Amino acid sequence: MIILGEKIILSKVNNIKNNKDNSQMNEEKLGALPQWDLSDLYISSNSKELLADLEEAKRAALEFENKYKGNLQNLTISGKLLEIIKQYEQLSELSGKISSYAFLHYAQKTDDAKRAKFLGDMQEALTNLSTNLIFFSLELNQIDEQILAKALAENKELMRYKTWFDNLRKGKPHQLEEKIEELFHDKSITGRSAWNRLFDETMASLKFVVDGETLGLEATLNLLSDKEEGKRKKGFMALAKVLKENRRLFTHITNVLAKDKEISDRWRKFKDVADSRHLANSLEGEVVKALVKAVRESYPRLSHRYYKMKAKWFNKEKLDAWDRNAPLPNSDNRIYNWEEAKKIVLQAYGDFSPELAKIAKLFFDFNWIDAPVKKGKSPGAFAHPTVPSVHPYLMLNYLGKPRDVMTLAHELGHGVHQKLAASQGALLAPTPLTLAETASVFGEMLTFRALYKQAETREQKFAMLSQKVEDMLNTVIRQIAFYSFERKVHLGRRNGELTTEQINEMWLETSRESLGSAIIFNEGYEYFWSYIPHFIHSPFYVYAYAFGDCLVNSLYAKYQEGNENFVAKYLDLLRAGGSKHHAELLKPFGLDARDKDFWALGLNMIENMIDELENLQAGYSA
Q1: How confident is the model at residue 6 (pLDDT cuts 50, 70, 90)?
Q2: Fewest CB within 10 angstroms: 134, 192, 567, 582, which?
Q3: Is the separation of the CB atoms in 443 and 411 below 8 Å?
Q4: Helix (H, G, I), strand (E, B), or coil: what is residue 209?
């Protein structure tokens, strides 16, 4: 899953000037960093195997349509449904392999026109062939309930797909007539996908001048977490200037995509602006409402309280916007080389579960990680699951900071989760977003706890704990504020096109509510909504971070309590992938996301950490 939001992007650097010099310097400090070997997918973009697989996928999709369209119910009655599902799954695997390679090949060098063209060509080809498959889900949902129930009951192997069928059934009220579905599908290339690409390419091309040096977006964002306030302020001012200059384009993209979603929601009869996301996440709307309510009620005792404390540590009445993610003056400046980071994370994983560490080690042993900062490389960090028959790949922009070690632990968690779930197959391995963050955030927590135990002084503990609290606030508080902002934008767009000033005010309203009175929203901050890609690529995606963090906090609390057979149950949860509903997966731990106490347990862990910070505060001086 791609992680490119404010939560992670602050700790990554890309498009750095004098890249060659930086690379040499980093290799001296960090050691040899691994780079992808994508040959487990394909050896090159013009390989015979790739071209043959694409032709096979086209042929198989057409044959699948000709063979089964209009006849699924009769074939289900005659006991053929499992065979059909397996063919569909095999085709999903094949097209997924091509798609994964095209994206990962592009992510290595996004400024390469040939790679961009290859990605676009592959996306178009796969969209075209998948048009032949639109009938499948539509017809499956037309099968009589009793006939489908009988088929599942009579075949244990088919019953394994019950959750997949259940999720498909939930979408039935929102399906359209087949020709309209085909039109929506075909127009996606010139619709939402095209606007997404315009946003990405615009962001990649933006230049920010700081002290005469021209930087890309991530390098400039990275300045906001610099120890020197002067650098933080200059980075902030550069961001504000360039985002303001491009406000008309970002406002237009936001309006177009919000309207595009409103049209789709209206045709599909979704009542709420976020209902389609809840459906995709296999999550009930009332569960999300409970999460949002609990987090918003926690603002005063978590984020408001913490930023007031931080202002005091910086000897300020209030923090400027560029101080919010500033490291403490005595925070850890240590640079961890790659071998040190690898050892720390694998040790933390291994202390929890040797099996987990064994799987994690594969990513290092076989170059499934691309770690160096390189010109044109995709920003941020992510774990791409590819397909079950291959293995995941991780992308980092590793600079050796403590937060980079945590990012490694985070993405490795995704990778291990995806590897464990692969046995479920192409249809059941993918995990809903709400559970997709489980292993990643848990891996971060294990690594943090391991490092925290090693801290020798009060100051070290204080700095580490404050950084962890800030990461959790950015994950829970900030992401729910983003969700609230998106709701304002999409609801507002239903009443007509929004001006930049209207969007800016929505951004400031949610920021003031979530961050509190200890933060100054300096001039220019009102444009900071415009660089966050989640709003463009995945509307309402952001609450999944908060869900995942609170879930992991609750799970970790159970682990600390000595929940019986916790490790075995946790590994079973990861192996399940998307084959079970979240309620079934959490039940063995005595957790229920519909219960308000579930969210309280997760939020209380953050509050306890802030309490611990206050206890450590004695003797600390900024």
Answers
A1: very low
A2: 567
A3: no
A4: strand
In the sheet with 381-384, reading across from the earlier edge strand, the strands are 2-3, 381-384, 393-395, 369-370
Q: Where are the alpha helices (DSSP H) in 516-588?
A: 534-537, 543-560, 566-576, 582-586
Residue 413 lies inside a defined structural domain of this protein: no
Distance CA(69)–CA(88), nearest Å, equals: 13
Rounded Cα gap, residues 353 and 91, in angstroms: 35
Nearest-angstrom CA–CA distance, 383 and 388: 14
* Number of domain units in the chain: 1
Rounded to the nearest 5°, which phi and psi values hold at 219? Answer: -60, -35
**Structure tokens given for 505:** 């005010």
Q: Is 366 helix (H, G, I), strand (E, B) or coil?
A: coil
More confident residue, 120 or 618: 120
State both tokens at 362. Answer: 């594969």
Determine contact, residues 126/185, Cβ cutoff 8 Å: no
Each residue's pLDDT tens digit, 233-280: 999 999 999 999 999 999 999 999 999 999 999 999 999 999 999 988
Contact 15, 206 (CB under 8 A): no
Phi, psi of 383 (to 5 degrees): -120, 125
426 has a pLDDT exceeding 80: yes
Radius of gyration of the chain (CA): 24
Helix (H, G, I), strand (E, B) or coil at 384: strand
Please check whether residue 583 is in contact with residue 592, taking contact to mean a CB–CB distance below 8 angstroms. yes
**pLDDT tens, residue by residue, 151-191:** 999 999 999 999 999 988 998 888 878 888 888 888 887 78
Q: Which CATH number belongs to the domain containing residue 81 in this structure?
A: 1.20.140.70
**Cα separation, 557 vs 442, whole angstroms:** 11
**Residue 166: which domain range?**
38-190
- Asked whether residue 368 is assigned to any structural domain, the reply reads no
Contact 586, 570 (CB under 8 A): no
**Distances, alpha carbon 188 to alpha carbons 178, 183, 191, in Å:** 15, 8, 5
Tokens of 399: 């600079």
In a domain, 544, yes or no: no
Interacting residues of 529 by C-beta distance below 8 A, sequence separation 6+: 485, 503, 504, 506, 507, 535
Least confident of 476-480, 555-559, 616-620: 616-620
CA 169-173-176 angle, 5° bins: 105
Dihedral angle sign, alpha carbons of residues 162, 163, 168, 174 = positive
Q: Which residues pair with 384 in a beta bridge?
A: 393
User: At residue 98, what is the residue type?
Assistant: I
How does DSSP classify residue 379?
A: P
Residue 152 inside a domain? The answer is yes
